[in-house]
Design a protein that fits this description.
Elements lengths: L13 H8 L6 H12 L4 E2 L40 H7 L6 E2 L5 H11 L12 E2 L2 E6 L8 E6 L2 E7 L3 H7 L4 H5 L2 E7 L1 H8 L1 H24 L3 E5 L3 H8 L4 E11 L21
Antiparallel strand pairs: 1-3, 2-9, 4-5, 4-7, 5-6, 7-9, 8-9
Helix pairs in contact: 4-8, 7-8
């Protein structure tokens, strides 16, 4: 297709292009071989899907109690009359730029994590498996002491008590959102075995799966009436904080927003930009 340059003097970055092309596969035989290697990669089991009832059931998870934990995979969530389609949710979401330091309901976080860490369909890992490990710096979640946690097989495993907001803020490049959140989630992957088995394309696969998980966390937060935003971070510092060899791929801060996001617009409502006339 015909395109127009976005700049009269575009700059090229050869190392970025080389990194992108390092994961290319030259033909069908290489694809078949790579998929065979991926099927043999040691993978953790992803979170098993709980029963799906109606769209909108997740919103009721904010009222879940500790007594209902784990009874049906939804942490006590009940069906509601509210129907949230993905399209409606996408239109009313908005990356949160400021949190108030109020706690999240315990059931809400469990529902969000269970939704986010289900298997991602693809050819980079065996069915039902995951390349990822999920870590959380919890600051304010009802029924949970602040601390460093790992999400494993549908539950929160306490790694270390105590998660100072200023420390998590420092992990997130000094961004206030990282420390003001109720919880900051880090999607990580142990890269050494992945790269050994899958080469440079293995890093791309880990980033792809982390991207799906991170966006699911954000959509789950918006569905429950909370806020979320993706953050950058200091890779090695994050790994040391959680005491893991896994490297962070992506991070999401989740909490109570300080304001209500403006709803988005459908494509037909967006202003038209004619690049041909620029």
């Amino acid at each position: 297709p015909r395109t127009w340059p976005l700049s009269p003097s575009p700059r090229r970055y050869p190392m970025v292009t080389a990194a992108q092309r390092a994961g290319d596969l030259p033909g069908a035989e290489a694809v078949t071989d790579w998929r065979g290697q991926a099927a043999r990669v040691q993978a953790e089991p992803a979170t098993r899907s709980g029963p799906v009832r109606k769209p909108g059931q997740g919103r009721a998870a904010t009222d879940a109690t500790d007594a209902a934990d784990g009874t049906d995979g939804t942490d006590g969530a009940q069906t509601t009359d509210t129907i949230d389609t993905v399209e409606a949710l996408l239109l009313r979401r908005g990356s949160t730029r400021s949190f108030v330091r109020d706690p999240l309901p315990r059931g809400a976080l469990r529902w969000a994590m269970a939704s986010a860490t289900r298997p991602v369909p693809g050819d980079f890992v065996r069915p039902g498996g995951t390349l990822l490990e999920h870590f959380l710096a919890m600051h304010a979640v009802e029924g949970r002491q602040p601390g460093a946690y790992r999400w494993r097989q549908g539950d929160f495993e306490l790694l270390r008590a105590g998660a100072e907001r200023r420390r998590t803020r420092a992990l997130c490049l000094g961004q206030d959102l990282g420390g003001d959140s109720a919880v900051t989630v880090f999607h990580c992957a142990e890269l050494a075995p992945i790269l050994e088995a899958l080469g440079s394309r293995g890093y791309r696969a880990a980033q792809l799966e982390a991207g799906v998980a991170a966006e699911r966390v954000q959509l789950a937060a918006f569905a429950l009436g909370f806020g979320a935003t993706g953050l950058t971070f200091l890779d090695d510092d994050v790994s040391r904080f959680f005491g893991t060899d896994a490297a962070p791929m992506l991070s999401v801060a989740v909490g109570v927003p300080a304001y209500r996001a403006r709803p988005g617009m459908r494509p037909a409502q967006l202003p038209r930009i004619d690049l041909a006339k620029r």
